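Hi all, long-time lurker, first post. I run a small reading group and we've been trying to get comfortable going from sequence to structure in the token notation. Rather than ask abstract questions, I figured I'd post a concrete chain and ask someone more experienced to write out its structure so we can walk through it together at our next meeting. Sequence below, copied exactly:
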Amino acid sequence: MLIGIIVVVAIIAILILYFIVTYNGFIKLTNYVSESFSQIDVQLKRRYDLIPNLVNTVKGYAKHEQETLEKVISARNKILDGSPQERIDADTELQGALKSIFALSESYPDLKANENFLKLQDSLEETENKISYARQRYNSAVMAFNVKVQSIPSNIVAALCGFKTKDQLEIPETERENVQVEF
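-- Answer (accepted) --
Happy to help. Here is the structure in token form:
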């Protein structure tokens, strides 16, 4: 009888310990996902801060290119609000607008040679690389979290505590298309 009680208490203690360890694992992964997105945010903010300088530098050379500059400013203003995916979509829009600005530099040799413009272009390229890395890190964190949410037996703890899978950041369909290179 005493052995039976000890076995039952031991099983209950093991289940409670498993629940605590698994719950803490979910909390750790949730915080890792949040921190990973914060790194994307930091880089988006860095680029957000660089854009006015870039726009002002280009304005001096390309006064009649106002529409392109307005697209960049409009896309920039959308980037700090919304869900993670909405912000990434705004970021994609901004990337397209920035490509237009850099294409303008081909039409303005003085702009292309401007030291400020070149420094800003380098800073933005460096920031783009950091954003890309931060996105990969975020998606890795989300994948680890989702695996734990969906795996047996941790999925039981996930269901009991309300942990649900998270969406990974995805690139738009337009960026998945093959690039056409013509000579």
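A couple of things your group might point at:
The chain has one domain: 2-169.
The longest helix spans residues 2-61.
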